[in-house]
Amino acid sequence: MKASIRIASLAIMTLVTTAGLGAAQQTLRISTHHSSTSPEIEQVVKPFKEFIEKESGGSIEVRVFPNAVLHKPAEGFKALASGVTDIAPAYPTFQSRAFTLNHASSLPMAFANNYIGGRVNEELYADFYRDEWKPFRILPLFYPVSGTFDLLSTKPITTLADIQKLKIRTGGQSQSEIIEKIGATPVVISSAETYSAFQQGVVDAVLLGPANIISFKVDEIGKYYVPLSLTRVGILWAISEATYDSLSPEHRDILFRASRLAGVNYADFYENETERALDQMRDEGIEFVELSQDDKDKIASLLQPMWDDFIASDEKAGDLVTALRSKADQYSGLTSEGFRDLQLNDPVMGMMPSASN
Has residue 8 got a pLDDT over 60? Predict the structure, then answer.
């Protein structure tokens, strides 16, 4: 048993002797597909790294590998389990058949903002999400949600009927189902091909978050923005189980506290980038379209069957939806300050199997 743990530890963490500390130093690798200059690296990953290194007194070195140099976005699960990396984002959407309950985050209009989504996901983890993650041999650090997905169109939109005439780019899976349910035509196109497809008229509109509208530069093409808040994506940031097992209790506690702060920074990052993107689109003269309340109600009604199907998909799904909606209502209006206070002073217990949690 000791030999197997030692082998796993060597495969996943680099141990070097640090003369100044007179002890072995552990190196944790964080990998992501985001650019080294992206706001996510600056606002989330770097503070996470700095907190761990400072609180550990230098006994943990954190190395960051951006730009998908260690693995592609969809390969986070495999990279963590095989020892390619130690910490990485793992998207349930990339392993859609392996999950049922964890797709709750992507249900239509599940969360009003990133703060609510991040807190509720963590509170739901122990009772509903945990069992679906066990086969991947990874453990949760924090469980945020992405920014909201809205519409940007080259064609004028004033009503739901206008949307229903459009061909809309999606990332596939639940996003395509959402577009189908509201009566439009989904077209699955990769991120890399979205700009050219939009520019060439292969699609009339794109389903993207405001920040990605800017990063993909499709604001250069689209003229009409419709803030529908149709869906979000759950993004579990995880650590390899073998890496976690190799950490001392003190280092596990540092990682837990660092993760609480990272969850706050991640939600702030998405909320701030969304506001910045919206301001930029306004400055560029993109028209913001507000649908009538009647049309909004129709969209909600058209999307309700996705909730019904989810409830029917698993014996625990009904209880999950009840808990999700109750908690989302409880945290209605949760702000950055309120979320920070909760995460740092009243953190969710039951995610990582440590003494502190």
Answer: no
Q: Are strands 205-208 and 236-240 parallel, antiparallel or unpaired?
A: unpaired
Whether 121 contacts 105, CB under 8 Å: yes
The DSSP code for 218 is G
The pLDDT of residue 131 is: 95
Please give the CATH number for the structural domain made up of 150-230. 3.40.190.10
The answer to whether 294 and 226 have CB atoms below 8 angstroms apart is no
Matching residue, tokens 């913001």: 288
β-strand pairing of 185-188 with 167-170: parallel
Domain ranges of the chain: 2-146+234-277+314-345, 150-230
Taking CA atoms, 184 is separated from 131, 167, 187, 327, in Å, by: 35, 6, 10, 31
- Residue with structure tokens 């440590």? 354
Tell me the pLDDT tens digit for each residue of 80-107: 999 999 999 998 888 888 999 999 999 9
- In this predicted structure, what is the pLDDT of residue 193? 95
Measure the CA–CA gap between 24 and 346, rounded to whole angstroms: 33
Residue 254, Cβ density class (10 Å: 0-12 exposed, 13-18 middle, ≥19 buried): buried
**DSSP one-letter code for 234:** B
Q: Is the CB of residue 203 less than 8 Å from the CB of residue 83?
A: no
CATH architecture of the domain formed by 2-146+234-277+314-345 = 3-Layer(aba) Sandwich (3.40)
Strand partners, 62: 28
> How far from 351 is each of 64, 93, 133, 238, 320, CA to CA, in Å?
24, 20, 11, 11, 17
Contacts of 81 by beta carbon, 8 Å cutoff, 6+ apart = 136, 137, 138, 240
Sheet holding 150-153, edge to edge: 185-188, 167-170, 205-208, 150-153, 224-226, 287-288
- 2-146+234-277+314-345 and 150-230 agree in CATH topology: yes
DSSP class of residue 145 equals: B
The residues facing 186 across adjacent strands are: 168
From the number of C-beta atoms within 10 Å of its C-beta (0-12, 13-18, 19+), residue 293 rates as exposed
